[in-house]
Amino acid sequence: MSRFDDFSSPLTPRPTRWATLACVAVATVLASCGGGKRVKEFQPSQVIAFGDEYSAFEKAGIDINGTGTLRGLRYTINFVNKITVFCSAPFDGTYQCAAPANTITVGVDDFAGGPSPTFALVSGSQDVVQVFGTGTVTGSLDSVPAGPIVNQAASKQVTRAYFCSPALSTYTGTWVQTLANAYGSGLTFGGDYCPQSSGNAQSYATWGAKVVDGAGTNTVAAQVAAHRAELGDGTLVTVFAGQNDIIEAYDSVVAGTTGQQDAAQALMAQRGNQLAGVVNSITETGARVLVVLVPNLGLAPKVTSATAVGQNAALLTALSRAFNEGYNNTGGLRLGLLKDSGYKIATVDAYTLFGSASASVTTEPACPATTTKPDGSATVAAATDGGKEHLLYCTSDQLATGVTLTSHLWADATHLGPIGHASLAALAYSRVKQF
After folding, report:
1. Do 116 and 190 share a domain, yes or no?
2. Which residues span the domain enclosing 310?
């Protein structure tokens, strides 16, 4: 058997104000849509995601001291648990039992052991956790056998067990994972995205992607162009980007390196309109597009936390709004979307969804100032590498003091945590029903 230790389980989450918020947001959107009920609800045959790190995965995996590769990490708080595996014989220090050779007996089940590039402990036919070590535990777990467990004192605790599948917990997957999972296991982000899932959904989103960047390569338009042939009738495409454009513009204005607020707002309105053009072009393939309006970054810890000295929350709010709605009656993502697309485009209003958040869950990030790499070899500060590794290695067992997995909206200075992703997924699912 396996035992989960030091774990306040989100598998059966208690109701939170964010679950309520998501429901309220869904009800508001539905009430404003008008029109009659669709004769047949849209059921996607595939899900493809474009955009920035909100929809991205670390597909290359993380090397664990040359002994294996950890896959399924996302750019939010990754869920980690402590697991104890009981063995019928003492462990030899390599996550394997001493006898019989290369076999771990757990209750009445036998598990294959030995080195492997992927480390997983599975329950039934579905992966439950990823672990790392020098050996592999695979197979199926049943209930605890009757009577005392043999050699319980010789149990081995695997201290870093990663969950990545939204099928396991409301607060485990990112918004796009949870959305895809709602349509069945065949449409989930499996394989290198998350070994615990088995679907064929694809994400071409990347860390740092923008609507416009200096090199012109890490953009949503480039992602779509490279994979346009994969789109067609029955495809649900998600597009979520713009945050990196907005933050770049904000930092430039605050630093005094480019223009004033008026010019920056006009530029963001233009960027929103450009992203709308990309979305409009996707509909030409027959695919249906779910596009997310950017959250109000003026509520993010970047400008609201205790350490955000000299920051300008009003400016960041204005830039976020300009990207979504335009500026001086021109541009903007929402206004640029095709109005005659029938049921091809639906918007997810993340700006409004998180606009009523209370200060207690918005002003501070959940992740600590430094996070530890999965193999424990080093720590990474938030300011390192633009915050990429810091956020990637942020886990539920190394949060800031006083923070829990479900207590704070933001994972770091500008990225949503599990509560935000779960609420966004609920709203996104309701919008798909409008196709």
Report:
1. no
2. 33-64+171-432
